[in-house]
Design brief:
Pfam families: DDE_Tnp_1, DUF772
Shape: flat
CATH architecture of the largest domain: 2-Layer Sandwich
Distance between the termini: 52 Å
Keywords: Coiled coil
Strand content: 15-25%
Largest sheet: 6 strands, mixed
Radius of gyration: 31 Å
Number of domains: 4
Mean pLDDT: 86
Structural class: alpha+beta
Low-confidence stretches: 427-439
Number of helices: 16
Organism: Collimonas pratensis
Helix content: 40-55%
Protein name: Transposase DDE domain protein
Length: about 450
């Protein structure tokens, strides 16, 4: 074994430190957990067992179990059985808890029975970060993640899925009836046992169709026309893969881009992010106690109404506009090629003509102004602009809000921060301890 790093003889006597304190360095994160938990009044936060009972077997103090719980999430050890093993062999956990070794059932019951109290602990942690000015100069990045529910796809129904299932069952019945007709015409070709089996199958399928019809009645009474049987709150959601989807939840997360701490979160069953920006910004404001926030999000959050709501909250949103212009894809001018002239309330087109206001309409609850120029039919570059008689331009009544945001994006002095937004989210999630504790 020469020329290799050599180990120590297993029979060699060695002198180990006599105290657990010597095994834990001064900058070890478990010291933060220890100080933080010991500073809490667990009784006032709602933890059961904070005051010992006068009779019966002594219980573990909730601070011991809370430290194990926090340590597990900080180190991505969420299983109660694995936490039990860590308490028996992990020197950091031994130091943190002073060597009690609760079993997995005790750890699991603590987590199950103290959910509201643990949420209050999370709020106390955010308040501590506020007092330490960790959020003083931070921007907020918002993103959503899809989390799979207990409910599988076969237990989730929409109008389309339900009708497809019923049509499939009806096609099966038709096939079985056709086979029964053949048995009547030529009984020697179809055994009696097969006939009996077909009749049972038809009766079973008819019962399934009756059940689906009953589900359809309930489906029509739901606001989003969707039902999940196992996990009623879960909803079918599209994922990034084409043609794929899952039944689950959309978890919104707000992270400060400076220290990568999750400051707020919300679990929703809405399959998209377009309506989440303002509510998450408001939650971030309340969490860190700061009103003039800059909130960064990706294109999936772009919504005029949400961006307007953010400005009313005093939040500065930075959300790029989705690249969905059909005209640009066809090689035609898109809306960005038309210059809005605020003083005269009209647009200047690429040909230098003026598109004036024509009328105002309400579409999807929003007020839109419509503009076009009378010079369109004779315009020499009309083929580059529109295939219709006139090129119509729609302007939302609060379009100036979106224009101001675009100007901020164009001159924002720290574009790298936007590029780093996803990494901030991922880093905060990887530190599941403090971030996941806010759930």
């Amino acid at each position: 074994m020469k020329r290799f790093v050599q180990g120590t003889d297993r029979t060699q006597s060695i002198l180990l430190p006599e105290q657990l304190e010597d095994y834990v360095s001064e900058d070890n994160p478990v010291r933060v957990i220890d100080v933080f938990v010991d500073s809490l009044d667990l009784g006032s936060l709602g933890f059961g067992g904070a005051k010992p009972a006068q009779t019966g077997r002594p219980s573990y103090h909730p601070s011991v179990l809370l430290k194990i719980y926090i340590y597990g999430y900080l180190n991505r050890v969420q299983s109660s059985r694995r936490l039990e093993r860590e308490a028996q062999r992990n020197i950091e956990v031994m130091w943190l808890t002073s060597r009690p070794t609760p079993d997995f059932k005790t750890i699991a019951d603590f987590r199950k029975n103290n959910g509201p109290a643990i949420s209050k602990v999370c709020r106390q942690f955010v308040l501590m970060c506020r007092n330490l000015d960790l959020f003083a100069n931070a921007d907020i990045a918002i993103d959503g993640s899809k989390f799979k529910a207990v409910n599988n796809r076969d237990k989730n129904f929409t109008d389309r899925k339900l009708q497809a299932r019923i049509e499939q069952l009806e096609a099966n019945i038709a096939r079985y009836l056709e086979e029964l007709d053949r048995a009547d015409r030529q009984p020697e070709l179809v055994p009696e046992a097969r006939v009996s089996h077909l009749k049972e199958k038809i009766a079973s399928i008819k019962k399934q169709i009756e059940g689906f019809n009953e589900i359809n009645k309930q489906l029509q009474q739901t606001p989003d026309k969707q039902i999940s049987l196992t996990d009623p709150d879960a909803r079918s959601m599209a994922t990034s893969g084409r043609g794929t989807g899952m039944v689950g939840y959309n978890v919104q997360t707000a992270v400060d881009t400076r220290n990568h701490l999750i400051v707020s979160h919300e679990v929703t069953n809405v399959g998209h992010d377009r309506t989440q920006l303002a509510s998450m910004a408001a939650q971030a404001q309340n969490a860190i106690g700061k009103q003039d926030l800059t909130v960064v999000a990706d294109r999936g959050y772009f919504s005029g109404a949400e961006i307007l709501a953010c400005e009313k909250l005093g939040v500065t949103p930075l959300v790029p506009k989705p690249l969905t212009s059909g005209n640009r894809a066809q090689g035609l001018f898109d809306k960005t090629d038309f210059i809005y002239l605020a003083q005269s309330d009209e647009y200047q087109c690429p040909a230098g003509q003026r598109a004036i206001w024509r009328f105002t309409t309400i579409e999807h609850g929003l007020r839109w102004h419509k503009y076009w120029s009378s010079a369109c039919p004779a315009c020499p570059i009309k083929a580059q602009c529109t295939t219709g008689t006139n090129r119509r331009i729609a302007r939302w009544e609060h379009e100036d809000v979106l224009e101001r945001m675009q100007r901020r994006l164009n001159v924002w002095p720290n574009p790298a921060a936007y590029a780093g937004r996803p990494s901030s989210i991922r880093l905060a999630r990887s530190r599941r301890g403090w971030g996941q504790l806010i759930s």
